[in-house]
Amino acid sequence: MNNNVSITLSLDKRRIKTNGKFPLKICVCQKYPKKQKYFPTKYEFDEEEYAKIIYPSKEKREKATITKLREELTLVKKKAVDVADKIVPFDFDFFNKKLYVTESQESDVFYQYDLYIKKLIKEGRIKTANSNYECSKKALINFQIFKNNKAPHLLDFKSVNVQFLDDFERYFVEIQKGSISTVGSYLRPLRAIFNIALEHNIINNNYYPFGKGRYVIPSGSKVKKALYKEELDLLYNATPLTMEQEIAKDFWFFSYVCYGMNVKDICLLRFENIKKDTIQFIRAKTKKSKRTNIHPIVIPLIDDAYRVLKKYSITSNNKSDFVFGKISDGMTETEKSKKIDAFNKFISQHIKLLAKSVGLDSDISTIWARHSFATMVINSGSMELAQECLGHASKKTTEAYFSGFAPNTLKDISKSIMSFKK
Q1: What pTM was estimated for this model as a whole?
Q2: DSSP secondary-structure letter at 156?
């Protein structure tokens, strides 16, 4: 048994039920740090009944019902001990989830999806929950329906093998006419669910279908999501045709000059993040993914950024207020997510129209500001600087934002390699 945890069964005498009985609880005591919690069972007894169960009578033959109850309670305690043994370090919340889940539920992929989606929503990661995991789950259910599965909303981990994943890929590309990159976007959340199941001993490595020699999740070809110097100049000097285009342009370039700050972080900026001539903040994504060694991003307030702050900031003397007033502390995490998403779509919708009016790529969106910033910094000769400014823990992540060298740069390289000619 886990040496840091002790488990007993006891009657909860804090409240008596109308039938004169007390509920039986599983008492879990953690030694370090010292903590105790009670977990319910379906059983209830009065004190005399419970005494007969835990103290067997040696003088007379006891009733079969008493013997049966004693065996059942022995199994209840054994399950609790077995669950606690597998949780290292021990965690009460995880113990609670594991204790009441049935074996069939635990081995169901979609049940694990639902647990993780609830966790993401609780953490305020609404977009990840809905756009990534809900969409992935729905795609897999639709595949089950296509296969005429009698229970399409159930999927055992052991059923998801290399053949299953190959069939899903063919179904989505050939039948649904979807892209191979979208297949990857649906299967990466599934792989994350498998990793959680592996970590929690729900499955062992023999049933893990991903990786070298198994199924390799496809990744689409890199799509250009950045503007180069000449294109940035063209967009910067473009005259907005509507008020909406003016707002979109202002915030797009605010994102660009603020080291590619994404729209969520823009909306989350508080007045306390403005420090004289700098903006200092911690990315929302970093707060969720890291717990140690978190460093704020420090951005010098150049004229273009300061102009947008002065133009769009709300009037407030409260340092904890959100600068642009797109969200408020009184909103739920879901409400904040919807507001941020709507503002993101607003900027993308109207920057596309402005870009199109001056002959630029009409696919431009808010993420292009971040990619454009990264590309400009890397083209200046510093991948490490781009990594620091973007707040990436890995250089590999930064490389994914790089849209390649500008065409003129490549032409100069081609000329330079033949500079030896006389």
Answers
A1: 0.62
A2: B
